[in-house]
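Request: When convenient, would you put together a sequence paired with its structure tokens?
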Amino acid sequence: MTSAWTWDSAWPAPAKLNLFLHVVGRRSDGYHLLQTVFRFLDQGDTLWFEPRQDGQVVLETPLPGVPPETDLTVRAARLLQARTGCRQGVGIRLAKRLPMGGGLGGGSSDAATVLLALNHLWGLGLSRAALQEMGLTLGADVPIFVFGRNAFAEGVGERLQPVALPETWYLVLEPPVAVPTQDIFRAPDLCRDTPSLSVAAWQPGQGHNDLEPVACRLFPAVGEHLAWLRQRTGPGRSRMSGSGACVFASCDDEAQARCLAAQLPPEWKGWVARGLAAHPLVAL
């Protein structure tokens, strides 16, 4: 991106998929050690920013049931102010399309776009590495959206290596539940000892999601949607993203994805998306 970005520009916050997600261990502080591949999609939320002269951070489109002071967009902007001593304020408008508790990284993506946009609009000049470190204090998925490239991730999700992924289309389904991530990771039956992979050894379609069995047990609608996809796709093509609830099928092309979508039960929610080569703000 260039300086053509202005205060009245729309700023994208794309969804992500976890093409696989293995839990390979656990740290002494209780955090789980993961391996995953993140893939950005051409669907997501959108944010707009307006300057304020009073130094306040105001979310002008609060989400139902989410106090503004706990919203990740507000927290990201205030963190940026606190870390840099910036006295500029901002009004934030958010068009929320990604489901909360869906495993698509919506809140984390929104927070990352706030960090990237305000670093640019406020003229702070922080590096992406600095913004990634800052983002990690907000949530484990924030750094990948700041990083801006599809990546093989390790640690708690902060150690990132870019990966080239083939052009792929996806059908994403939204089961009518919100899955609390902490409930999945606290489950005693969660697998925590999957053998580690090397980034060089991983290929698209390889791996699984260790969080799926727990999510499907606690939230049967997730399992129902996943089973529907697996009955209609080949081996290894359908998985849950993150800790759920959303599930997806990888398709060879757009036509295949839309054909699959046309078969959905009328009461189910699903949408077709194209996998991106990089985050839309990667060049900012």
Q: What stands out?
A: The chain has a mean pLDDT of 96. The chain is about 25% helix and 25% strand. The domain at 169-274 is CATH 3.30.70.890 (Alpha-Beta Plaits). The two ends are 4 Å apart (CA to CA).
